[in-house]
Amino acid sequence: MIMTETNEFMKQKIKQFIENKNVCVIATCSENESRASTVNYIVDGFTLYVVTSGKSIKVKNIKINPNVSVAIDDQGKKERACLQAEGIAEILSGTEAKQAKEFYSKKRDLSHHEPELVDTVLKIELKEIMFTDYTKGVLRVYKFKL
Fold first, then answer.
1. Over the stretch 74-109, which tens digit does the pLDDT of each residue have?
2. In DSSP terms, which residues pair with 144 in a beta bridge?
3. pTM reported for the whole predicted model
4. What is the pLDDT of residues 1-13, one digit of tens each?
5. Strands 80-91 and 23-30
6. pLDDT reported for residue 114
7. Which helix (H) or strand (E) covers residue 34, if one does?
8. Which structural domain, as residue segments, surrounds residue 104?
9. What's the whole-number mean pLDDT along residues 115-136?
């Protein structure tokens, strides 16, 4: 594994990688019980927004422990890239939740979901990113803090 210094060009490439995807895995933990959840997301810079059920285990865990891990992957490709990140999740409420849901709805149709399955908005601020790039036949790993 080659650790490579992350410059602004690579940060923009990584940002574009996140923007070009729409599914990630969020790992949460509470009271020594971990949970990995596959979710749809939208992105604004290095901030992810997830609309989910307020009754989900991930939301219950985030209420107790807002530290999360996020994984985004190019699954099944010969030349692949993947992202592992640490972040802080926040359960939005009030006007902020309403605005975030409107922002989310512009990119993802929520109308076919039962209301109780899309009643909560999570905002995940990515804080530390590790990006593994094997798209040019050479393994490179970029790591940086935001």
1. 876 666 899 999 999 999 999 999 998 888 888 877
2. 129
3. 0.90
4. 567 677 888 899 9
5. unpaired
6. 77
7. strand 33-40
8. 3-145
9. 88
Cα dihedral 5→9→12→16 (10° resolution):
-100
Q: Count the Cβ atoms, other than its own, within 10 Å of residue 62.
A: 25
We report the CATH number of the domain holding residue 88 as: 2.30.110.10
Burial (CB count <10 Å: 0-12, 13-18, 19+), residue 87 = buried
3-state secondary structure of 52: strand
- What is the identity of the amino acid at 129? I
Separation of CA 90 from chain center:
12
Burial class, 70, CB count within 10 angstroms (exposed 0-12 / middle 13-18 / buried 19+): buried
Question: Is it the case that residue 35 has pLDDT exceeding 80?
Answer: yes
Cα 43 off chain centre by: 8
Looking up tokens 């999740």 gives 89
Alpha carbons 21 and 23: distance in angstroms, whole number: 6
Q: In the structure encoding, which two tokens stand for residue 106, read together?
A: 């512009």
Q: How many domains, in total, are found in the chain? A: 1
